[in-house]
Design goal:
Elements: H1 2-9, E1 14-15, H2 17-24, H3 28-36, E2 43-45, E3 48-52, H4 53-61, H5 63-67
Antiparallel strand pairs: 1-3, 2-3
Helix pairs in contact: 2-3
Length: 79
């Protein structure tokens, strides 16, 4: 976890989706799913999506990140 925090500190205060992908080592599709489900908090500025670095740190320190979530994400639930 400390390695990730050091890596995050090198980025600007507000991140792009691409930067979030790099930090979390996830695909573009996964990043957008996590943003859409509000698992990672984000801001929409015009047509752009930006993620405050503090929101990534909150996610990294969350139970879902450290222990894994057993519950399906909202968009994965059967209707």
């Amino acid at each position: 976890m400390e390695k990730i925090q050091m890596e995050v500190s090198e980025y600007p205060a507000v991140l792009t989706v691409s930067q979030v992908q790099d930090i979390l080592h996830i695909s573009r599709t996964t990043a957008y799913k996590m943003i859409r489900s509000n698992e990672i908090k984000s801001l929409r500025i015009g047509r752009s999506i930006r993620i405050p670095k503090v929101c990534i740190m909150d996610y990294i320190q969350s139970t879902c990140y450290t222990n894994g979530c057993n519950e399906p994400l909202p968009f994965e639930k059967e209707v």
